[in-house]
């Protein structure tokens, strides 16, 4: 979702070099997201953060800042809202440091901005866009590019041909965002019956492997040979490359949902506890399934009412009716 801001910066005529070249954008990101930026034409270079999640690591952040100090950066845009995330550009002495205020970090930002209201929860691309003073009318949907050779290599390595159904059933945030296993299995079964030469492939991290196995176990035995899980078996870069070869993606509100949308893959996105207004899949080819119950969105990790009806009552047939044939998806 940060790519809309990055693309706007890259296209901003006021930020161009004297010879007309667009500004040079470098990204410092954690290892769980850094690989995504290599697929953006607006990003010049990506550096992986060496920091441990949730730890201050003052000395290490000072070292990273010092390594950036002599590289001539004019501006740093700090996307996370924590104090520790603002320390590196401060240590680097970057003259303009932009970010939302909070966590006592006003002193290390040169341009602290007031955070948008939590109650309003604007779409995330607008939340990020305002850090560059860009508003909705100039923010384009995120775009990722996968070279044909990389797509072919990934498909060959995992024994796939373009057109398969990708499924991202995980929910790192919590079970209140996760569609039931039986619902995923029903849609996968319907796809395989309609596309006898294709496969259904489940994606996710190592923590998702158990839930993926549950989904596979609920499918008819004669179809299980054409459905398998890659949860925990691919790098993020490989997952992105494979996603570009899918006919469509069935997913919860997740990171891979945003990846597929940026790749212009048909997306079927199921929302429960989160809001399709705040974090929608940004693509004209995306379809959102959301019951908009009185109790949702609650933005909780687990259903505070104990029933998760916002997901259980979302009928898989709604998605099955919208699936596209494998030949039309790529």
From TrEMBL:
Keyword Oxidoreductase carried by entry: no
Reaction(s) the record says it catalyses: an L-alpha-D-Hep-(1->5)-[alpha-Kdo-(2->4)]-alpha-Kdo-(2->6)-lipid A + ADP-L-glycero-beta-D-manno-heptose = an L-alpha-D-Hep-(1->3)-L-alpha-D-Hep-(1->5)-[alpha-Kdo-(2->4)]-alpha-Kdo-(2->6)-lipid A + ADP + H(+)
Entry superkingdom: Bacteria
Keywords annotated in UniProt: Glycosyltransferase, Transferase
Enzyme class: transferase
Keyword Glycosyltransferase: yes
InterPro entries to which the protein is assigned, alphabetical: Glyco_trans_9, LPS_LOS_Heptosyltrfase, RfaF
SUPFAM superfamilies per UniProt: UDP-Glycosyltransferase/glycogen phosphorylase (SSF53756)
EC number(s) stated in the UniProt entry for this protein: 2.4.99.24
CDD domains hit by this protein: GT9_LPS_heptosyltransferase (cd03789)
PANTHER family assigned to the protein according to its UniProt record, in alphabetical order: ADP-HEPTOSE--LPS HEPTOSYLTRANSFERASE 2, TETRAACYLDISACCHARIDE 4'-KINASE-RELATED
Family: Belongs to the glycosyltransferase 9 family.
Protein name per its UniProtKB record: lipopolysaccharide heptosyltransferase II
Gene: waaF
């Amino acid at each position: 979702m940060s790519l809309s801001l990055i693309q706007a910066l890259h296209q901003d005529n006021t930020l161009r070099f004297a010879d007309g070249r667009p500004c040079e954008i470098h990204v410092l990101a954690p290892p769980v997201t850094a690989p995504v930026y290599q697929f953006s034409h607006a990003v010049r270079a990506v550096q992986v953060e060496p920091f441990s999640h949730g730890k201050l690591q003052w000395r290490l952040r000072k070292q990273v800042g010092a390594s950036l100090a002599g590289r001539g950066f004019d501006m740093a845009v700090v996307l996370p809202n924590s104090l520790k995330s603002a320390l590196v550009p401060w240590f680097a002495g970057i003259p303009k440091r932009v970010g939302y205020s909070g966590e006592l970090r006003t002193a290390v930002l040169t341009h602290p901005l007031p955070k948008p209201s939590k109650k309003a929860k604007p779409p995330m691309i607008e939340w990020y866009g305002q850090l560059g003073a860009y508003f909705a009318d100039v923010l384009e949907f995120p775009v990722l590019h996968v070279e044909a050779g990389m797509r072919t290599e990934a498909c060959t390595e995992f024994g796939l041909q373009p057109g398969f159904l990708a499924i991202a059933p995980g929910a790192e945030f919590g079970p209140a965002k996760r569609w039931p296993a039986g619902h995923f299995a029903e849609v996968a079964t319907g796809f395989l019956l309609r596309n006898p030469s294709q496969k259904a492939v489940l994606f996710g991290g190592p923590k998702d492997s158990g839930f993926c196995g549950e989904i596979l176990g609920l499918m008819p035995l004669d179809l299980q040979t054409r459905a398998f899980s890659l949860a925990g078996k691919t790098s993020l870069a490989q997952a992105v490359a494979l996603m570009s070869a899918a006919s469509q993606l069935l997913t919860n509100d997740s990171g891979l949902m945003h990846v597929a949308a940026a790749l212009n893959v048909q997306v079927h996105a199921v929302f429960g506890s989160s809001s399709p207004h705040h974090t929608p899949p940004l693509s004209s080819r995306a379809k959102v399934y959301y019951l908009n119950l009185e109790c949702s969105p609650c933005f909780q990790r687990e259903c505070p009412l104990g029933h998760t009806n916002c997901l259980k009552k979302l009928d898989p047939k709604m998605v099955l009716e919208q699936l596209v044939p494998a030949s039309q998806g790529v």
